[in-house]
Each structure stands twice: as structure tokens, then as C-alpha cells.
Amino acid sequence: MPESATDERQFRRSNDTSIGVELELQLVRARDFDLARDAADLIERLEKRPLSGAVKPEITEGMIELNTSIHDCHSTLLAELRATRDVVVEEAGMLNLYVSGGGSHPFHDWTERRITPSERFNALFERYGYLAKQFTVFGQHTHVGCRDGDEAVYLVHMLTRYVPHFIALSAASPYYQGEDTSFQSSRLTAVNAFPLAGHMPFVTDWPAFLEYYETMLNFGIVRSMKDFYWDIRPKPEYGTIEIRVFDTPLTVERAAQLAAYVQVLAAYHLAERPQAPARAVYLVNAYNRFEACRYGFNGEMVEPYAGRKKRIGDDILETIAALAPHAGRLGAAAVLAELAEVVRHGRSDADDLRAYREKTGALEDVVRDSAAQWAGRAAPGT
Amino acid sequence: MLLGYLPQFPPALTQPILFGALLAAGLLAGEAARRYASLPRITGYVLAGVALGPRVSGLLGPDALEVARVLIDLSIGLIVFELGFRFDLVWLKRNRWLFAAALAESVFCFLAIHFALLYLGFQALHAASAAAIGTATSPAVVMLVAHDQRAEGQLTERMLLFTAVNCIFAYVALMLLLPFLRIEHAVTWTLAVLHPIYLLIGSALMGFVACVVMLGLARWLGKREDRQFVLLVALVVLTVGITRALNLSVMVALVVLGMLARNLDRRHVLMPLRAGYGGQLFFVILFVLTGTSLEFGALATASLAVAGFIVARFVGKAVAIYAFSRATGLRRRGAGLLSVALLPMSGLAVVMLHDAQSLVPGLRQELAAVVLASIAILELAGPVATQFALRRAGETRPEPRDA
């Protein structure tokens, strides 16, 4: 699509540090808590309900994607997420379906998945084969607004340093295909398989980025910016950068907290420009990312600017402390304090999911409890 | 005697030989139906049964039925249990129109058949009992087609839910009609009234007791699929056996067991049912043997009545489903497909008819023959209809290509 490719070169200006969220959610059937295949029926019902965001189909039929509108602060984002969640849960109930967060469905069998019939998804299945079905994993994509492309490129480089934070804070996929993976987040492994996964190259400004993009277009490797499955990527048509490493958390509250964390980090870096982009960030990235996926808060990361190892949880706490002035300015101080509390307790969503399994040993109970938690009812007995 | 160790010739057709032949014939016919005629496998099983049965080759007689009794009981039991297990009260509470729609489907279908038969000149009470029997969709057929096609989705779920409701409706309606029929035939009031009460309450109670035992034992066994499957089989066979010994209704007891197991399991001790586990084996046996007992007799003599019965039954179901489709949130086009999917009739109706006949000796043979012929047609055409509907709805999974 040459038109859209031209559009993509224009970075749409958007409100500095505005935020928006896309959540990929699991649709499970009440009978056995396996993934359902009723996304189309649910979306048809939701079209009749007034929603401020949007609900869209995803690559396989047991997934839906919930998009929020654009927000300037955490509180309105959370209010919208709650309202949308309630409508989605209610309509799903009419079809005898539950909705659940979490980065992976604990026991679904990927060979059973069916591709949502649409031109785009069929093309992805044609191209990627089984990877497309294995891509039935669930992430939160968080957008943060930038004024121009240079700012976006700068912010991608800056936020990459915090990728292990994002992974550890959102980790919610300990189970995969019926097994405990021993990871806190197993979802990113499914993303890693794609040829254009990874990170943005080390370019210094928007023209340099466009030059790279142009080259990739001319090579015929990509056809649009959508083809980059990077952890953090610029999204010029929205005027944002998009962070894609979060697992979908178990609650909308956590989803909004994570978005607030991104917002305050972006505000801090754009206002103070404390560091210049450094190649070292990308040297340590793969290692840090693995540690976060495997061990969560207890993983160790290499702090690329100081060049020394730290516990990821400790680095998050120090970062939150340093962000205090900007958090206050954006009305997010209380939210970040809540996140810090999660880190201090060392209990992520992945730990919650493992606790659900402890109760009976059965993975359907994990889904039952996480669906209850998503609906805003506390999971029983925890 | 020289060579006395040799068997007589030809060797006797022992039961294992017959049984193995039955399985092989069913399997091959089912596969042939699918490959060469794009028909559902069940239709092949049933046709194999017709071919082996007394009306054609006579290889399988009533004694074959006795051999396979336990297996038939088990397969019917498991099917009806699963049907009940899919009956989710939480869903009905959230989607209240759904239960109304299911009930309306039964009521409209009953009335439509009833008036059609009245119009054709049958007596009111007899027409009503035939209508009650005709209301039920075959649980075995819809369940097998759903399993066979690995159907998943809203239409499949509704088809199974509506089937559960119309089966229970049919049985209860028949039980309510029986006293009047029997009074006509000079049975005392107390006997006429007490017997259906015994059947209904007794069967439901049986299901309840089995459910309490099942939940208790499942809790003790823990959440392990292998153990729970054996527990399920054991309790289903036991329930079928005891229910039969007490002259109660197997269908009601097992549906109640399934429903209560799903809805009383507050602690979630039961594992969800998963298909497989030799299910195909049970289905082959069940449908081949059903095929041996099909009666086409009335087709020649009363084809108009048979056609009226079948058309009225479909129209009744379709009208109700159309009327309620929007309120229950069924997709566009879904109503027509659901009406088609609910067409099958089978063994359950035969059982109900025989029960009614044994209690009411005077139930006119002519009417019974009409019902039996309709069953025979819908036993063969029903699976085709259900498979077509589920495929059209996009809820089936394409067959892996044959090598």
C-alpha cells in the first residue's frame, strides 16, 4: 500500500505524553475454560453498544483487542478501561463466555486455534504458517504521544533501557500449552520467532529512521511499519511510540498503572533529557530481557549507563523514587506508589496465577480465577 | 474320531464374531459415506445397521442388541450426561431470553405437530402424545455430529441447550398425557396418576443421588482427568443399571445427573468433560444397532401423515427460533440454521414410543407407525441436516485431507 507508506513518513504531532492502551484479551468458554472461538459474535454484539474506545478481532478466534481513546492522565484512562471492561464482560456473559487477562492461555493447544477469517489474518497465516497460530498470546500495547519524529526516536532509545521493568511489572504468562514454563513471562518467546522482532536500529533522528525504513521498503523486506514487531516502535500515524513488551495484566487497574508508569518515564526523559542515547543499551538488552522474562523482579539487569548489575526490582524502586516530581505533576504519584508496593511485595500477576493453581492443581481453575479477577471480582480464596 | 479337533463347518456365528463384524461394517460404511457421498459418518453407521438388520440381511437380530447392552447403555448414558452437563444455569440467568426461547421451541413444535395430526384426523390425545414424542431432538445425533465435526460456537452451544430442553419437555409432556390416555383404557385413576409421578420424581431423585455421590468422590479423588474419567464411566453405568432395575427413565436420570453435576459443583471439583476416549467406538455401536431397528413400514401406507408430521415439526421449531433469535443474541442467519440443526430424531423417540405403547396398549398402531417412519427418515436425514447447519455456520473444523 504505497499511500499508507507515504503517510507513515509524516509523524503526526500529538499531545506530549498523552497515553492510550490496546489490550489483547482471552475469550474463554464457560464449559471448560479453554479458548473460545466466538470473537466475531461478541464483536457483533458490542457494535450495538456505545463505547468510547473500540473492540477488534485479533489473529485467532479466541482473542479480542480492546482499544482505549487518548488520555492525558491515569484517572480518565482507568475510568474508560473499567467502563469498557464492564460492557465487554456483560456482553460476553450473554454468549456464555468469560474474558480474561494474562499473557498466555495456560493450557490451550495452539494446533486447535483457528485463524480469524479476514484478508489480513489469512495473509499472515499464509506467510508465517504455524507461527501465526502460536501467536495466540496476549499483550498490552501502550502508546505515549510525542510532538515529532525526533522526539519519538529519542524516546524509543531512552525507554528501551526500561524494557526489563516493563516485562517484570506486567509478567503474567507463567503457563504455556499446559506446562509451567518456570518463566514469569513466556509470551515474549512467541514474539521472538518472527523475523522482524527485536528492536529499532540505533538511528539518531527521524530522517535517519526514515532512511532506514526506506531501505527496508526498497529491499522488499517490509511493506509498512506494521511489519516491524519491535519491542518499542514509533507509530507515526498516531504520533506516538508504542511499547509492546507488556503481558496483558490480570486487571484493568494494573493496565492503567503500567500506562501511567510509561507516561511519567516519558515526561521525565523529554523534560530533563538526563542521558543521550547510547549503544550500550542495545548491547545489554537481550540479556536484561531474558532475565526479566525468566525471573521477574528477582532477575538481574545490567544498568547500561553505569555498567553494573542490579536486581530488576531494586532498579524499578529507584526509578520510581527518581520520578517523583514528574509523577506529582501528572497526578500519578499515588499510582506509582502502588506499583512500588507490588515490587516490594515481589508479587506479580504471574505469582498470582501460580497461587491459583496451588489451590487445586488444575489449570482450568487458573483461568476461572483470572476471569473472575478480570471482571473486577476478586478471585475466591486468595 | 479322526480329525475331531476340527470345528464344524461352517463355524458358528458366535457373539464376538458378530460384534466385531458390526464394528467393522459400521466403521467402513461411515467412512465410505463421508468419502464418496460427503454424508456424515452417522448416516453410514445407520445404513450399515439397516443392511445388517432383520429387514434386509437379517445378520443382526434382537440377540445382537443384548450382547451390546452394556455398551449401548454406557454410550447413551454418556451422551445424555454430557447434554445435561452443558446445561449451564449461570448462562441462562445472564441470558434470560435463552431459556424462554428454548421453551418456546418445544412448545411451538409440540403444538405444530399436534394440530397437524388433528387436521389429518387423529384423535386429540393420541395426536398430543405423538406430538410430545416428536418434540425431542435426538441427543445422540446432535452430540455425535458436534463431536465428529469438532464444532464450537454459539450455534453449537444453542443446539445442545435446546436439545436438552426439548428432550425433557417431551418426556414431561408425555408423562402428563399418559394418565388421560390410560383412563381412556380403563385403568384406575390412582394407577394412572401415580405411575408418571413415580417415573418423573423417581428418575430425577436417582440423578440427584448419583450427583451427590459423584461430587463427593470426585472431591476425594482430586482433579486428575484419568481418575475422574473412570469415575464418570462407573457412575454413569451404575446409574443406568439401577435406573433400569427400578423401572425408571434412564434419559431423565442421566440428564438430571449431568445438569446437577454442572450446576451444583460449587467447589469446582469436577474436571470438564473432554471428547475422545474411544467415544467413536460407542457411537459406531449405537448407531449401527439403531439402524437395525428402523421401521419404514408406514411410508407406503401413510406417506401424507409422515410428511405432515415432519413438516409441522420443522415449522414449529423454526417459528419459535425465529421469533426469539434477536432477543437471545443469535447471529443473523443463525435462526434458520439452528432450526435445521435441531431436525434429527432417533432412538430416544423410539424408546418413548415403546414406553407409551406398553402403558397404553390401545395407542393406535397406525399412529405409532407414522411416528416410527418419521423417526426412520429423520434418523437418516437428520445428521445430514445438522452437519450442514453447523458447517454453514462456520463452526466446524475442516477434515484433514485423506492421504
**Cα-atom Rg of chain B, whole angstroms?**
21 Å
- Rounded Rg of chain A: 20 Å
Calculate the mean pLDDT score of chain B and round it.
85
- N- and C-termini, Cα separation of chain A: 51 Å
Total E-strand runs of chain A: 13
| Most extensive chain interface and residues per partner | A-B, 24 and 22 residues
Order of helices and strands of chain A: HEHEEHEHHEHHEEHEHEEEHHEEHHHHH
Largest sheet of chain A: 7 strands, antiparallel
Oligomeric assembly: heterodimer
Q: Measure the end-to-end span of chain B.
A: 53 Å
CATH topology of chain A, by name, is Creatine Kinase, Chain A, domain 2
Low-confidence stretches of chain A: 1-5
Tally of separate domains of chain B = 1
Structural class of chain A: alpha+beta
Unreliable runs of chain B: none
CATH architecture of chain B: Up-down Bundle
- Helix content bin of chain A: 40-55%
Outline the structure in words.
- The complex is a heterodimer of chains A (382) and B (403).
- Chain A is of the alpha+beta class and 382 residues long.
- Chain A has helices spanning 2-9, 39-46, 74-94, 119-128, 130-134, 149-160, 163-170, 187-192, 206-219, 252-272, 280-295, 312-322, 324-329, 333-345, 349-360, 363-374, and strands at residues 19-29, 54-57, 63-67, 97-100, 139-145, 175-176, 179-180, 197-198, 229-230, 232-235, 240-247, 300-303, 308-311.
- Chain A has one domain: 2-Layer Sandwich (Creatine Kinase, Chain A, domain 2).
- Chain A is built from 16 helices and 13 strands.
- The longest helix of chain B is centred in the middle third of the chain and has 33 residues, at 189-221.
- The N and C termini of chain B lie far apart (53 Å).
- The model of chain B has no long low-confidence stretch (mean pLDDT 85).
- Chain B is globular and about 80 Å long.
- In chain B, helix 4 (69-85) packs across helix 11 (225-245) and helix 6 (96-119) packs across helix 7 (124-135).
- At the A-B interface, helix 2 and helix 16 of A face helix 5 of B.
